[in-house]
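// run 5 | inverse folding | seed 20
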């Protein structure tokens, strides 16, 4: 059946115009016999958000009609002390079942109007890691609103449909766990290897250790040898959307990233690391098979190593 599918979008990132046109042809109706387009809102805010905003709150206030909500704080490994570690395949399948997503649905994930591109890439990356066939990111919801496309508001409604979503397993080749990450950074700090590149999406101040982390008691700083690529440098300053591919490529080139070498993306909790991963894809920068994401990111790293180990640096 999937071999006969015709997909609505040609690239990972889709524009509001492309999404609107596709929705008129193949929307998310539960009775649809063919592949559906399912809109998935990934709204999420840092725990120290100055306005105290939350994902569910802004989803209720404004969303694309018929969109469903993916809660990053709920669909995770609840047994981990770190905030957003990937859930088990079983738990992820249960989450998809409760949202009513089917494996042949074409899922378009989007962010908030307030932040622009931020957490949607993490949710889209998660779907990909668990093998969902077709996933895209709307670039972006702020432009959707500004260009006059429809929105709705109201309480989060549970879908009347529960799917039979199954997950074949986790694509482990896309993920880096702490033991391997520690070995990579240790090798680099001791001059044994410089081939693996670690790109850190946090702000320059957090990376340099001159600004605090949003989580109380967590040391700021960076892994030796890591390259700071703050998320705002990958986005349009006015719209919060991804920059065009050629401009993204220029950002990575200026940072001295080598497209021939493996790349690991990191951030605070593994959320905005996926922004870097998506930007690398849009820029066609490097081999997709050599791109991975450090799931625990800085929140895990800073709790499991120390400056005394030589594995946390606080210099520019």
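// decoded
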């Amino acid at each position: 059946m999937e071999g006969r599918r015709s997909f609505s979008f040609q690239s990972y990132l889709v524009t509001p115009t492309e999404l609107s046109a596709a929705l008129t042809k193949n929307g998310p109706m539960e009775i649809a016999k063919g592949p559906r387009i399912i809109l998935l809102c990934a709204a999420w805010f840092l725990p120290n958000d100055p306005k105290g905003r939350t994902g569910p709150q802004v989803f209720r206030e404004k969303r694309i009609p018929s969109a469903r909500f993916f809660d990053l704080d709920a669909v995770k490994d609840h047994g981990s002390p770190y905030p957003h570690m990937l859930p088990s395949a079983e738990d992820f399948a249960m989450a998809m079942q409760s949202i009513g997503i089917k494996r042949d649905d074409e899922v378009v994930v989007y962010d908030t109007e307030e932040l622009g591109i931020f957490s949607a890439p993490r949710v889209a990356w998660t779907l990909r890691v668990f093998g969902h066939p077709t996933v895209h990111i709307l670039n972006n919801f702020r432009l959707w609103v500004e260009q006059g496309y429809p929105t709705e508001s109201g309480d989060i409604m549970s879908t009347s449909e529960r799917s039979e979503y199954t997950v074949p397993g986790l694509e482990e080749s896309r993920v880096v766990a702490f033991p391997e990450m520690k070995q990579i950074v240790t090798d680099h700090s001791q001059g044994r290897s410089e081939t693996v590149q670690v790109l850190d999406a946090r702000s320059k101040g957090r990376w340099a250790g001159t600004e605090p982390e949003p989580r109380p008691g967590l040391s700021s700083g960076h892994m030796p040898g890591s390259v700071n690529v703050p998320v705002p440098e990958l986005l349009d300053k006015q719209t919060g959307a991804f920059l065009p591919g050629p401009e993204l490529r220029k950002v990575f080139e200026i940072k001295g990233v080598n497209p021939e070498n493996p790349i690991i993306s990191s951030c605070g909790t593994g959320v905005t690391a996926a922004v870097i991963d998506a930007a690398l894809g849009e820029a066609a920068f490097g081999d997709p098979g050599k791109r991975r994401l450090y799931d625990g990111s800085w929140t895990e790293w800073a709790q499991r190593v120390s400056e005394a180990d030589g594995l946390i640096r606080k210099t520019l």
